[in-house]
Amino acid sequence: xxxxFRISKWKVSDTSLGxxxxxxxxxxxxxxxxxxxxxxxxxxxxLMLQRMKQAFPKSGKALYLSLDHIWFANHHLLEIAEYFALxxxxxxxxxxxxxxxxxxxxxxxxxxFYPLNLVVSGSSMLNLAQSAKGDLSRRHIMYxxxxxxxxxxxxxxxxIDWQPVSLETLFQNHVDIAAETFPSITILPWFEQYLQRGxxxxxxxxxxxxxxxxxHIIDNIIDSEIPTVSDIDLASRYKIKSxxxxxxxxxxxxxxxxxLCRKLETNRNTLLKLIQLIASAGVTRNLRAKDSYAALGKxxxxxFDNTNIIYAFGNENTGTVRETFFASQLSQGHKLFMPNKxxxxxxxxxxxxxxxxDKSFEQIKDMSNSYVAADDIDMGFGNKIPLxxxxxxx
Length: 394
Hints:
Structural class: alpha/beta
Helix content: 25-40%
Low-confidence stretches: none
Radius of gyration: 22 Å
Order of helices and strands: HEHEHEHEEHHHHHEHHEEHHEEEEE
Number of helices: 13
Strand content: 5-15%
């Protein structure tokens, strides 16, 4: 047990407060039970360690525990929680909870019986509202952390420190906002770098290790995270990998159920389940028509979660990258649908067509509240907005 306390001190000591994620100031850190979920690699652990370093410097009141540590193979979380509370601890930060069996019940017991505040982090697939174990759904506040926005990427690289803008503000004032970058910043090269290797906070890793790490994250999600929340066998995990391979070479993928079932040698129900699982895990994103209410029904189009995954798979199709970027930035705080015309319907209010600098309004000319998100331009005009500016929303 003493080693766990030492590890916690080391990790907090090695954590920098120089840059904090967009979610940091949105969290109600005083709540008794906070759950932070998100895809692997986006910075959940760093977020917790930064809170510990800022709020509990050298106090011994906070303890970080990664529940995939070997110590928990022969010990219960309740053991260390009781010891910590009896010795004056007040805040437990629990990482990788989805890898700890029966974690919901033990977290509930800690919540109910010990004077400890809990911050819990885990997979994007955590869904306490559907979990009967421990009945935590009425006790927690849930937050979701996504990868770096383009705005955050610019900030962490000390290019420019913009505050997030709302979508409405962007639509109305995009020319004035873009003008703030000129003439001091040439924005498009930074945008290209972000598309290739800027979504994950570990983007500064050299050489091919960045894309190797993305591949490792995806393998870990399929082989480790998904089986913890779904009864899925080895053959099905292989089919998910085969599906991603198909998607990587034909993306954005307009779903053809019959064709994909044939390629993966599976049936419709199994295929739809696998598609939903990999989307819930934060690897892909499903787009449905606005009148489609079945979460497990057939999506109209499937995208990867972010553009870095596209490059990791070796697919550099320009149209794919543009649509994927747009969806990854708008999915924070907005609902995206597949419209009858255009590429995206946002919150059932705005229609956006995504394309290059010469993209016209021809396809959406008769639609109200319609816009073009155009790549390869640094400043827009009217309802034509530079694609990169949609990365300023969070």
